[in-house]
Amino acid sequence: MTQRPASRPARPHFSSGPCAKRPGWSPAALSDALVGRSHRSGPGKKKLAEVIDRTRAILGIPDDYRIGIVPASDTGAVEMALWSLLGARGVDMLAWESFGKGWVTDVAKQLKLEDVRIFESDYGLLPDLDPVDTDRDVVFTWNGTTSGVRLPDADWIADDRKGLTICDATSAAFAMVLPWDKLDVVTWSWQKVLGGEGAHGMLVLSPRAVERLESYTPAWPMPKIFRMTKGGKLIDGIFKGETINTPSMLCVEDAIDSLRWAEEIGGLEGMIARSSRNLEIVEDWVLRTEWADFLPSDPATRSSTSICVMLSDACPLTGEARDTAPKRLSGLLDKEGVAYDINGYRDAPPGLRLWGGATVDPEDMEALMPWLDWAYAEIAS
Question: What is the spatial distance between Cα 58 and Cα 291, in angstroms, rounded to a whole number?
């Protein structure tokens, strides 16, 4: 019988979204929020611009790339890009988990583009990237939030490409290096690696993406909330803090607080180090644990944020006991107050998904590992 661990994570927040707040966070961090004031006032615009400026500095986004705050989280940011930019040339769609597959559905069944090539793979794997043609537009996730599979690099993207690369980076930004010279559109939300509040998305456009917006008009009607041009010119204010619709100034303040914390711990390098350490802890645990294995089969593609593990081939559980084990295990740890929301994504193979982003303290991840062993022993007995 596995002994009940004596210590437990100080913060049992391992959800993959919304994610753990930064260490030491309390509602007092929002005391300077511009509540009751217009986001279009001078102080309101200043707050929004601060988010953009701090984001650019931490992530090293080139000066000639535009950064906007948009509605509806990462989903809204991706949809804005797809509806506004696609259709000028053929598009290659890459999908290896549920969100990537969602973008395939939008392009093929909602926009109904004719020249669409789809490159898919099962959970845990990347599709073959060799046939991808970056003279066409390409849509992909950098990190598969529901599969724990990430791109190891962007070497497959040509420097002299003619198409646009549109990258959903919502669980990668602030935890992984993004090669900006290879990416034309990048999106994410505050609620992932920054641990911020939801409902707001970030949209980054390269000069090539801006050129497409100003030279190409889609054949379909454009909802107001997606419009980034007027009279054939970019609506520049969107990328200076003049948001399309009303943002929550509480969420904006929370984003500023998260960005300041990121700066305090060493910027992007510090954020990556914390997330990488969380993955290392889980890797060490899997190496010594017979019943568990990673969902991603290639170590080079393992995500350091959405860390997905499953029952190993050596696990003796079979049938329904095996299929329901992750749900029962995660439910037991939730009841114990040790780890919240770690059951795998509903469309993914049965397993556990541990958020390892920068706001999760590595010592909490370390403390969780013995509890996983204890919980497995409890459900397997």
Answer: 39
